[in-house]
Specification:
This protein has three helices and eight strands; from the N terminus they run H-H-E-E-E-H-E-E-E-E-E. It is an alpha+beta fold and about 130 residues long. The termini are far apart.
Length: about 130
């Protein structure tokens, strides 16, 4: 019985970000997990959209696996809803990386099903407390 519960919990915990269509689509398309990114995605510098706080961009967090794998990677995606491009930020790992990948094309930009914990900020021109920068 304990083994069955553990297997079910492990299976449920392996999704990118439960019910967040843009994150789920990116994770599936590019194989994004705590182990890294399976598909070849070009490395890039920090995207201009991140630096300039573009109002059409949404920063979302992939599900964290830090409690399961201490040296695993964490991922965030900066999604420009106007251009339908996404950049992936990979942090963590054994050596403590901070790498940007992309841009990649994304077809899913509907965030209505995303839990609040997944969305870091909808409008990057606002500070977390809602005031303008």
């Amino acid at each position: 019985m304990r083994v069955e519960i553990f297997v079910i919990a492990l299976a449920l915990g392996s999704t990118a970000c439960a019910q967040c269509p843009p994150v789920d689509a990116l994770a599936k398309q590019y194989g994004i997990t705590y182990a890294g990114i399976e598909k070849d995605v070009p490395r890039t510098s920090e995207p201009e959209q991140f630096r300039n706080r573009d109002q059409t961009s949404v920063l979302v967090q992939f599900e964290s696996h830090a409690s399961h794998v201490r040296d695993g990677f964490e991922h965030m995606a900066l999604i420009d809803t106007k251009s339908k491009l996404a950049w992936i930020l990979q942090t963590g790992g054994f050596a403590g990386v901070h790498r940007w990948y992309g841009p990649v094309t994304i077809t899913e930009t509907n965030f209505s099903g995303c839990p609040d914990s997944a969305i870091v900020t909808r409008n990057l021109a606002e500070k977390p407390n809602g005031t303008r920068q």
